[in-house]
Amino acid sequence: MTLEIEEIKRAMNIVNKQITGRLLSKNKMKVKLGLDAIQEMWALHEDGNIIICGPMNEEINPKYPKWIVFESDSNQFRIIAEANPYAPEMAFFLIEVWKGMKTDPDTTLEQHVEQSLSLIEQRWKLNGEPLNRKTQRGLIGELEAIRHVHPIKGLEAVDAWDHTSHAKHDLSGVGWAVEAKSRSPDSNMVSISSLDQLKWSDTVKLVLSVTSVKSDKDGLLFPDYVDSRHEELKSIDPDAASVLLIKLQSCGYNEATRHRFKSRWVVPELEDTVFFKINQDSPTNWWSWQVEPSRPKEIKVHQYKLDLSTGTFNEEPLQNLLD
Fold first, then answer.
1. In a domain, 247, yes or no
2. End of a domain among 104, 125, 146?
3. Residues 6+ apart with CB under 8 A from 23
């Protein structure tokens, strides 16, 4: 069984709201998890710790990072971690168990718990940064796009962001979409991940957002860059800032891992992000045209480089493109 992206996103939102919105609101709070596949599990907030409990009908011996305490008795398991800074990691764990139960219901809950704990243990054993440089650069491009779209669309700009990187476009709203790319300041090329990513549709206003992102030894670490953008948004729209932070925590950025980031970036100015209209005549729509001879079915093309320097693409104000 394969899970739909929207189903995963809904589950992530439910778990994050239950953990950050309800569970951590006061001490001794107990929450029954609101996802059908893991409805036998519950979470408790006690003395600064998050405790996740569930039934145990078979013995398991999971591996887990040193900041987790795993306890079990004859009929129950308990997974304990400090709420600050590990709440996002516990939410990630719950989503992994839920995904396992949904896609492989014949495997027991206990085995899915064991596998999910082992996955977290593997994540924490990795050397290097929690997010590689390419991913950091890409996220900066996406966050800068949100920064520009928010004055036009408000909270919808953040709600529309697909932080999972699985949807066709980075930001998808009702009747509009923005595909966000980043490039080095001296490059006119951007990488397009799939043939459909910049495919024109008469039902969607599609915009290509391109941000020049530069690394520099005197720049900000990725967590500090995120902090600056989060605080900027929080000062004008606290609700949108809260949603943004939850989504960022779900894709690998959180307080527990921030000390492991090493790459430094120059914070983009507003003028470092430019926008291009994708219409029926855009070269990116070539994949939709009837071309003779047609591409043989044996030839698979998954991504391509787009040259923005040929004169075909002209920068336009984002407001004009989304109105």
1. no
2. 125
3. 29, 31, 43, 44, 45, 50
Write out the two tokens for 12.
Answer: 């992530």
| 310 falls within a domain | yes
* Per-residue pLDDT tens digits for 257-310: 788 899 999 999 999 999 999 998 898 887 666 666 677 777 777 788 999 999
The pLDDT value recorded for residue 1 is 56
Of 155, 39, 23, the closest CA to residue 90 belongs to 23
> Does 276 lie in the same domain as 204?
yes
Name the nearest CA neighbour of 10 among 42, 41, 35.
35
Q: What is the pTM of this model?
A: 0.72
Say whether both 36 and 20 belong to one domain.
Answer: yes
Residue labelled with tokens 């008795």: 73
Q: What burial class does residue 302 get, using C-beta atoms within 10 Å of its C-beta: 0-12 exposed, 13-18 middle, 19+ buried?
A: exposed
Of the residues 125, 142, 172, the one at which a domain ends: 125
Which residues of the chain carry a pLDDT beneath 50?
none
Count up the domains in the chain and report the number. 2
Q: How far is CA 5 from the centre of its chain?
A: 12
Residues 6+ positions from 241 with CB-CB distance below 8 Å:
230, 231, 233, 234
pLDDT at 252: 66
Q: What is the pLDDT of residues 203-243, one digit of tens each?
A: 999 999 999 999 999 999 999 999 999 999 999 999 899 88
The reply to whether 9 falls in a domain is yes
Strands 189-192 and 205-212: unpaired
Instruction: Return the pLDDT at 127.
Output: 67
